[in-house]
Amino acid sequence: MSKLIRGIRGFKDISPDEAFRHRYAEDRTREHFARFGYREVRLPLVESTELFARGIGEATDIVDKEMYTFPDRNGVSLTLRPEGTASAVRAYLEGNWKAPSGVTKIFYTGPMFRYERPQKGRYRQFYQIGLEAIGGPGPLVDIEVIDLLHLLFVGLGVNDVKILVNSLGCPACRPAFRDDLVDYIKAAAGKLCSNCLRRIETNPMRVLDCKVPTCREALEGAPVILGYLCSDCDDHFSRVTAGLTGLGVPYEVDPKIVRGLDYYNRTAFEAVCDRLGAQNAVAAGGRYDGLAREIGGDAYGIGFAIGLERLTLVMDWKSAELPVVDYYVAAATQRARIPALGLADVLRGKGYLVEADLEDRSLKAQLRSANRAGALRVLIIGDDELRDETVQVKDFSTGQQQTVGRDSFLKELQALKTG
Ligand code: ATP
Ligand code: MG
Fold first, then answer.
1. Calpha distance 245→163 (Å, rounded)
2. Which CATH class is domain 327-418?
3. I want to staple 59 with a disulfide (CB 3.0 to 4.6 A). Which of 52, 203, 239, 308 is the partner?
C-alpha cells in the first residue's frame, strides 16, 4: 500500500458530526439575518491582491503576513479571500447594489483563508457568516446591527456571550490618540513581546489587542481612545450606547477593542465567550466608512463576521435537533432486497430519514445495525409480506412488533406527517 496522503496543515476536515453543527448554526443564523431584511450574496473566493492590500491595509496582520497570494498564469497577483468585507463592498460598488429603500443589507457565508499558526479555534481555512449594512452613516444602523447580533445569541440559547463595544474615532481625532499611544508603548517597550514591538510603527492600535499576559499588564495604563474622540465621534458613540441600553442589549464598553483593519472607524464591537479560552472572539465587527474610498467608490458601511467554528463551540447542542433515523427497512429474504429499497424510497419521498441494508447481511445483522444507527422503527419485509402485501413494523422505543397492511401503513404515515 502506498503512504496515506494527508491534508494540508491548518486545513481542517469537517466530519459529518461537525458539518451538521456548522449547517445547523448557519441555518439558524441565516433565518435570523433574513428577519432583519438581509439578503444573501455569493462572492468569489479569489480576488485581486490589490483589493485586500488597499481595502484592508498593508500594515495589518492579515495583509502583512497572513494572505494566500499567488500569481495566475498571466502573472496577475491573486489572493484567496481572508475576510468578506472588502469583497462585499467591492461587489456593492461594482454592481451598483444600492437599495432604493435606503441601507443595503447583505450577508455572505463561506470559507476564508489566512496563513496563521494553527491551534484550537484557529485554522488556515475557516468559515465565516457575516453581514454588511452599506449606505447609512449611523448611529441607528450601528444600534440595529449590534442588537441583531445580541438577539442571535439569545435565539440560539447561548447566554454567556458578552458584547464589547468601543469607538475607534475617525481620521480627525484618531491621530492624536495614536501619537500618545505610541509614546506610551515606546516607554513600555522593555515589557512587550516581539510582535507588539513590530507593531509600534506599523499598527500601534493593534498592540492593545495583544493576548500575551505580560503585554496586557504593561498596557494597563495606556491612553484610552474614548478620551480623544472629536465631538461628532463622541456624539455618535453616546447615541450608540444609549440606543443599546434603550433596546435592553447588554454590553460593556471596552477601550481595548480595536480592529486589525485600517478602514474601521467609530463603532467597533466584538462578541466574546470565556468558554473559548484564548481565542475567545466569536464575532467581530465595526464601522468602515473609509473602505469604499480606498477601493475607488464612496459609501458608509458597518458589518460583522461570525466565526462558524467558534459559534458551534459556544452553542448548547442539547437543545438542537440532531438527525435521527426514522426507519430502517430490513429484508428478511433475498427476494425482498429490492422491494425493501423501494419501500425506503417511498418513505423518503414522504420526508423521512430512512436507512436500508446495502451489504446483503442477515436479518439479525440488519436489526443490530438498525439499533446501532439509532433508528426509531424497523420495517421488515420477507417473502410472506411480499405475498400478502404487508409489512412488519417494529418500534424500538416500545419493543412492539406487528404486521400491518402495506397500503394502510403508508396511508397512516401520511396522516402522521401532514397532521
Ligand atoms: P483574532 O484576534 O482572533 O485573530 P481577527 O481580528 O483576526 O481575530 P476577524 O478578522 O475580525 O478576526 O474575524 C472575525 C471572526 O472570525 C473572529 O472573531 C473569529 O471568530 C473568526 N476567525 C478569525 N480568524 C480565524 C481563524 N484563523 N480560524 C478560525 N476562526 C477565525
Ligand atoms: Mg487574526
1. 12
2. alpha beta
3. 203
**How far apart are alpha carbons 241 and 201 in whole angstroms?**
32
Q: CA angle, 177 as apex, 173 and 183 as ends, to 5°?
A: 155
Tens-digit pLDDT string for the chain (419 aa): 899 999 999 999 999 989 999 999 999 999 999 999 999 999 999 999 999 988 877 777 788 789 999 999 999 999 999 999 999 999 999 999 998 888 999 999 999 999 999 988 889 999 999 999 999 998 999 999 999 999 999 999 898 999 999 999 999 999 999 899 999 888 888 888 888 888 888 788 888 888 888 888 888 888 999 999 999 999 999 999 999 999 999 999 999 888 766 678 999 999 999 998 888 899 999 999 989 998 999 999 999 999 999 999 999 887 667 778 999 999 999 999 999 999 999 999 999 999 999 999 999 999 999 999 999 999 999 999 999 999 999 998 888 999 999 999 999 887 655 43
Whole-model pTM: value is: 0.88
- What DSSP line would sit under 165-229, residue for residue? EEE---TTTHHHHHHHHHHHHHHTGGGS-HHHHHHHHH-GGGGGG---HHHHHHTTT---GGGG-
Establish whether domains 16-173+229-314 and 327-418 are of one fold: no
Reference 132, options 284, 311, 301, 324; nearest CA is: 301
281 lines ligand 1 (CB under 6 A): yes
- C-beta 309 within 6 A of ligand 1: yes
| Contact by Cβ (8 Å): 64, 201 | no
**Ligand 1 close to Cβ of residue 114 (< 6 A):** yes
Cell of 3: 503512504
Name residue, grid cell 455572505.
108
Topology of the domain covering 16-173+229-314: BirA Bifunctional Protein; domain 2 (3.30.930)
Looking at the CA of 56, which ligand is closest?
Answer: 1
| Domain boundaries along the sequence of the chain | 16-173+229-314, 327-418
Grid cell for residue 160? 454567556
Residue that is written with C-alpha cell 430519514 in the block: 353
Question: Which residues sit opposite 327 in a β-bridge?
Answer: 354, 377
Ligand 1 atom 7: residue of nearest CA: 260
CA distance 376 to 83: 43
